[in-house]
């Protein structure tokens, strides 16, 4: 059986898409058959049949180009036009958010790939169907979590709250990814990184810590030159 990891951010724009693409590229460099999946894509405008923009970004970083599972919708079966939470975007279109569709697509991908990285939407408490949130989906399916954080002011607070929410739900936090974007002062970046890493060592000793470089050009990513590539 293959392995599924759910990748969530501490907030919107934490860098989940970059981190997901980089982690997939690193696993490919280790000889793994890996594919990414998008939990839900909102903000698609009228192009609801187009490939998810986050999936397209993953493929650019991975250097694979679009895959058949992308063009047939398997890697992102839920897309909505309005740029909001999945719950609101679905209601605006008079549609229902279908959780089982996502799970079935993940299971289908596992028949071909060793690892499926499922990129979430926003943070863990984002509503997807009424009061049902992202963290409910992760908990109900017993998925190990990869949490993406960054150097922004407030990230320590958001990171620790996310970790404590996972502890409360009994969710295994497999890894915390420190994304080096947005670029801020060296003092803040260094101290935030140190604090989160030390906090994990004390409070989540089984959780791995890795970093993702700032990618000005996603097409230029090369795992062989990634100084943070040790997993």
Description:
The protein is an alpha/beta fold. The chain is 38% helix and 17% strand. The chain contains 8 helices and 8 strands, in the order βαβααααβββαβαβαβ. It has helices at residues 16-29, 53-62, 68-71, 86-92, 99-110, 134-140, 155-169, 186-203, and strands at residues 3-9, 34-38, 115-119, 127-129, 132-133, 145-149, 173-179, 208-212. It has a 6-stranded parallel sheet, with helices on both faces. The chain is globular, with a radius of gyration of 17 Å. The two termini are 21 Å apart. The mean pLDDT is 94.
Please summarize what this structure is.
The chain is of the alpha/beta class and 231 residues long.
Topology:
Elements (H helix, E strand, L loop, with lengths): L2 E7 L6 H14 L4 E5 L14 H10 L5 H4 L14 H7 L6 H12 L4 E5 L7 E3 L2 E2 H7 L4 E5 L5 H15 L3 E7 L6 H18 L4 E5 L19
Keywords:
six-stranded parallel β-sheet; 231 residues; two-stranded antiparallel sheet; single chain; alpha/beta
Main pleated sheet: 6 strands, parallel
Which H/E pattern describes the elements?
EHEHHHHEEEHEHEHE
Provide a count of the helices.
8
β-strand amount: 15-25%
The average pLDDT value, as a whole number, equals: 94
Calculate Rg over CA atoms. Answer: 17 Å
Which residues form runs of ≥5 with pLDDT under 50?
Answer: none
Q: What structural class do the secondary elements suggest?
A: alpha/beta
Give the spatial strand order of the biggest sheet: 2-3-1-6-7-8
Percentage of helical residues? 25-40%
